[in-house]
Structure formats: C-alpha cells, structure tokens
Amino acid sequence: MMKKFWNKKKVLITGINGFVGGNICKELISLGANVTGLIRNKNKKTLLFLEKLNKNITLVDGSIDNKETLKRILLEQNIEVCFHLAAQVEVGVASYYPNLTWENNIRGTYNLLEAIREQGKHVKSVIIASSDKAYGSYPKNKMPYKENYELRPKFPYDVSKACTELIARSYTSELYNLPIVITRFTNIYGPGQVNFSALIPDCIQTVLGHGKFIPRGNGENVRDFLYVKDVVDLYLLIAKKLFLNPKKLSGQIFNAGSNKPKKIKDIVKIIFIKSDKKKEYIKIQKAFKNKKAIGEIDYQYMDHKKAKKYFGWSPKYNFNSGIIETYKWYKNNIKKLI
Question: Angle formed by the axes of helices 319-337 and 199-207, to 10°?
Fold first, then answer.
C-alpha cells in the first residue's frame, strides 16, 4: 500500500543532507517517489552522498531562509508532500550561538510555510519536525511526555522548537488551513548519523578506535531513543494519512518514543560492552563521577500511544537490535567519515 501511494509522489525534503532527511530520502526512492531536496551545505560525508542517493533525486542549492527559492521549488516541481527537517540541531551549538539557532529554526519555518501558502497549491501534506525538547523540564512523575502537556522550554534549542510549533499551528488555523502535522520525536539514532558530538556516534567512533569519548555529565540523565528506520516508517505513514484525510489530522501533534528510557551511562555501557571494550568502559565509568551537564534536562522520554491509536504504529526495533545494525554501518563507513 505504501509503494502504491508514494510512487510518483512529488516530495520536498528540507534538511535532506542531514541524518533523518537522508534516511527518509532513501526510503522514498525505494518507493518510487520523485524527491527534491534543498541543500545548503554540500558536505559529502553524509548518507545522501555515501550511498549515492543524490544520483536519484533533484537537488536544489539554496537555504531555508530564502523564501523565493522555496516558492520556485514548489512551483517548478509541483510539490505535493513536504517534510520540513532543516534545522540547527546541536544543543551545544544552540547554547553558544542562540541567534544562529533561532534564525535557522524559526525563520526557516515561517519562510517555508509562507512559501507554501503563496505558491504551494499542490501541497496536501506538510510534516514539521519538532522535538521532545520543546516540552522543557518536567519532574520524573510526569513522564512520559504527553501531547497535551504545556510547552516549558528554557534553553535556546528547546525554545526554537517550541516557536516553530506555534508558527506551524497558526498556519493550520482557519486563516490559512494548511495541512500540517507536528512531530515530537525522542532522540533518534542509526545509520547516517554523522554528527559525532551526539552520544551514540561518539561512543561508536571511540570503540572503533577513531575518537575518545568524554562524558559531559554524570550519566544519570534519562533519555529515550528510537531507531531511524522506525522513525522513517512513522514519518511516511503520518504524511500519507494527512494527505488522504487533512480534516482529521491537520493541526495534530504526535509524540514518538519507545517509553523504555535509559540512563546515559547505561547506554554507554551497552555500546562498549557489546564491542568488547570493557576496560575502556571502566575508565569512562570513573570519568562520569562528579560531572554535571549544564543546559541539560534531567528526564526526557515519551511513549507512542497516540501514534498507535491513530496509525497502528509501534517501534519494530528494540535498542539492542538497533545498536547492532548501527554499529555495522559505522564499521563499514567510519574511514570515509573521519
């Protein structure tokens, strides 16, 4: 059913050269979609170029902050579905350069939605990627996050995502009636994640002998993780259902997580022990002590009850099976990435 729907669909992906964007692109190509990607940074050490996905799509040079470029893409490519993933996603960078993050994430979103309003007559489905971090900090007894929770962001990246959501909601109102769904997914990992400041890539490059993992905190922070293939499946499912039934879904928000949270130090342990690096892990275990991460929320995780109710979706991968596939991908590609 998915192949029948996506075959020949005209799809725009912002952030296509990123981790999730590249994985969505890969799946859409296999389903026969006509994919257009907006690309500003032609970094070749990404999934898009490593797996030569760029050969099978239309790439447009440009930035999300150029509304005229976006309008031209929508018009010339007759875009029907849009995945908006372009963002400055590094929490650390956001803390040092909040203005850069807000310009990218907030301005980029309203530019895209305004371009769709003005020129997107064929667009029937828009997916806006927010984040679990938009919720801000809640006590442990309020976990997992629920879609109806008030947003309480405090740190720059978190604030940027909350603002993105408010803008998107405005465009779903009776003023504009754009078909938009907002997603708040937990931490995503898997093949193609080449941001080595992220926890799992950092750990894996270390066990493969190409880095040194240094804890940023005491490892007690609790987080949830989803494997990227599960995330792609849900993205495509939501986009399809929104396309077919905008009245039911437009303006909705969907969380996605495993609801099986783990402490950061336990995730590190799993990766190092599975890689037969027990001695190295013992050293890291000592390094966790007496460290406190600044600008980090203590507890963040969510379930997927609403997504299951609406779409019948649940993650297919558990953390162990996802890590095994992820490790294999890095082992095969690490020398091309370093």
Answer: 70
d(CA 241, CA 232): 14
Sequence-distant contacts of 274-281: CB under 8 A, at least 24 apart? 274/320, 274/323, 274/324, 274/327, 275/204, 275/207, 275/208, 275/327, 277/207, 280/206, 280/207
Q: Is residue 248 part of a domain?
A: yes
As a whole number of angstroms, the distance between CA 284 and CA 265 comes to 9
Note the pLDDT tens digit of each residue in 67-82: 999 999 999 999 999 9
Distance from the Cα of residue 307 to its chain's centroid:
16
pLDDT digits (tens, 9 = 90+) for 5-31: 999 999 999 999 999 999 999 999 999
CATH code of residue 141: 3.40.50.720
Amino acid letter, 134: A
- Active-site option among 135, 138, 157, 327: 157
Nearest to 268 by CA among 212, 333, 334: 212
Q: Is 157 assigned a catalytic role?
A: yes
Note the pTM of the prediction, 2 decimals. 0.95
CA distance 326 to 201: 9
Helix, strand, coil proportions of the chain in percent (round to 5)?
50, 15, 35
Asked whether 304 and 225 are in contact (CB, 8 A), the reply is no
Residue 113 lies in a domain: yes
Give SS3 for 275: coil
Q: How many domains does the chain have?
A: 1
